Every structure is written in C-alpha cells, then in structure tokens.
C-alpha cells in the first residue's frame, strides 16, 4: 500500500509534513545519492589524518595521534548536532552574515527544506558538511603533537569549533555569509578548512612551546618519522577521501563535480612530483617517500578552494606552486621558533593560502557553468579580466587568518590559566610518552602483558609474574604431591584439569 501524499513542500522549516507531503520531490535523487556517498568518503579522511600524524611522530606518542583522530570525529559530530550546523548554516544570520542563529539547535527542523545548497535537503547537507568540520578539527590538533594533555585538548576542540570554525563556515558557505556576498570564491574549504586548521595548529604549537629535546636544545627538535608505512597509508586514505571531498562539494552530480575530480588528481600528482624532485636535490639524491607524500597533500590542499572554478591545465600550475611553496614553508619553523612537528601550518595554512589566491587568478566562468542550472554565474578571475577577484580572495584569506589566530590564542591562554586545564604534559610525562602517561595503551607490543583494570577485591588481583615460582612451590607443598605438580607445570596444564 503506497502513501497518499496530498501536501506540497513548503521550502521552509522542516519542508512540510512528511506524513502528507513527499519531501523528496523537490530534489533529484541522483544528486542526493552522490552527496551521501561523498559524505562517507570524506569521513575516511579523518582516520587518514590520524595515520599520517601517527607515522610522523615518535613511537611513544604514536597511539595518541590515532586516538586524537577518532576522538575528534566523535566530539565534532556531537558539536555539529548540538549547535555547530545551526551556527554555520541556519537559513538566517546575525551581524550581516557573521554567524548563524540557533534555529537548528539540536537539529530541530533539520529535515526536508532546501539547504544553503538548494539542490540538497537540510538533513543531507548537514551530514556532508559535518564531515568537513571533523576533518578540520583533526588537522588542527596536529599542532599539539607529543606534548598536550588530552582532557584540555578535548575541551579546546569543542570551543575552537564553536568560536572559530562555525563563523568561518558561515562567512564562506552560508548563502547570507559576508564573504559569500562580498564575492570571494571558495569551492571546498581553502579558508574554513585548511587556512583555519593550519594557523590554529601554529598557535597551538606556539603556546605549548617546543618539545623537550636534550640533544638539539639550541634549535628546533627534529625526529625521523617512526613509521613511513603509516604515512603512506594516511596519504592513501586522504587522497582517496579527497576524491569525494572536492567533487561532492558541487552539491550535485553534474559535469562540474567530475571536472573538479580531475583537477584534484592532477594537482595532487603535480604537488607530489614537485616536492619529491626538490628533496632529491636537497637531500643528496634520495627520492624520499615522506617528501612525495607531503607533496601530494600540498597539491590537494592547494586545489581545494579552486577545484570547481578553474580549468584543468591550471590545476597543474597550482599543484607545482603549492608543492614548492609548502616545501619552503617547512624551513620557516626554525626562523619562527615554533615547533610545528607535523608541518600542519606549512601544508595546510600555506597551501590553503596559495590555493585561495590562485583561485582569483584562474577562476573561469565557463567552468563554473558546467553545473548548469544548479549554480549561480560568477564573473571569474583574471583569465576573465575580472581583476578585482584576487582582491576579494586576499580579503577572505586575511580575515580567516586574523580571526583564527586571535581567537585561538585567546582560548588557549585563558584555558592555561585554569589549573585543571593546564595544556601541556609535565616534563617527565612527556619523556615517558603520551601513550603511557595519558592513555595506558600502546601502538606496539610493550613489556607489560596485561590491560590495566581496576582492582575490585584481593581475589581479583593476579600474582605478579616475578612471584610465579614461589606460587608453584607453595602449591606443591600444599598438595603433597610434588611429582604430579611438577608434571602439571611442565606440561602447561592447569591443576584443576589434571
């Protein structure tokens, strides 16, 4: 028996009564299917960030970075449901496009009305954009590598997403956002995702201070990655996810989505080759795997704000410039004396800024129009002789940096004044490693053979391994049959089974 729908979608609130109205008739089901699949593809980027960061760290901190990625996606999804989506993408804003309202608090009314991207219902757009928020948070926490306490990290992440990310997403992607109405172009997150996470990580690393390094005290600490394999796997996850991250940002399954997919792959390839060749000459003729992976990520970051706006040939240029620029930025850590051990700022802060500016140069009206009726026309960039576009892009870049740096610094300084929210591990905890000091578990096999559990009674406490011989001797004496006991011990069978 089919439903008897007689109502008409309202386009506001929940979109109508789902018992009397077919809310799906407003939307193309193929578009919804594609964006739903893309949301799942973007999710895989979060553990990809964890693998990448874990591989770049020292072994005694490796698990904490995997933990941070899974904690981030869990906490950010809650934040997104609680008020994050509402603050970023409510249908009305406050402060002339500065911040959304709490109309969608707790996902109230998030159902079948058209979202800011009107080809999608609110609920699907919320799912997709929630993955972007999770990726941003995971990237930003890289600035805390190897020295941050985990409880303050969680509290800071929730506050940072609320105070920093929500306004930036509103400015850039909400139809009423002030950067959107100004005319800046950001296809898939150069500003809200990469520039903000890169500069947030830079300030986090600056306020935490450099890692304790008894060998290289005069300079910045520098350690070899403990697992290049994890770096490669993390890069694989990220590149795979990026093929949903950018094409899904079209909001539909039009030619523009697939055009942006090719731009994404070409920029990644160009960035990877560029970084690898630069490292070949810098490091004695070695084709470094870490350099190749870093270059791939820099190219992906650089093309993100431009992917749906620029011709394919220009994505090669963006990839090359991003690879070279981010490679150079990794050396600025020594000049700045900021211990950003995972190069979050160099890859995402600098790469996102390069992509933002190059969007203003290469944006083409005909590329944007490949979305057909699903998109609004743009004037293009310099190749369309629209010279103001680079100015709009610079305004967006500078405003994102200023907001991120200022708010992040205030948040961290304020939290560090509260005793139980002290940001950094104690020196002895840092030397022990975040995994042992804060988690009690390890990425690799350690000396301890038991998972720590609470002691509930004396009977539940297993005898220490070093006293096992004494326990065997005691059992032999009490049983009065030493030969049987010895036989049982030697055969490895428990006494109650003999």
UniProtKB/TrEMBL annotation:
InterPro entries: Ammonium/urea_transptr, Ammonium_transpt, Ammonium_transpt_CS, NH4_transpt_AmtB-like_dom. It is found in: Cell membrane; Membrane. It comes from the Eukaryota. One of its GO terms (biological process) is nitrogen utilization. Residues 33-444 form the Ammonium transporter AmtB-like domain. Gene3D superfamilies: Ammonium transporter AmtB like domains (1.10.3430.10). Belongs to the ammonia transporter channel (TC 1.A.11.2) family. This is Ammonium transporter. It comes from Zygosaccharomyces rouxii (strain ATCC 2623 / CBS 732 / NBRC 1130 / NCYC 568 / NRRL Y-229).
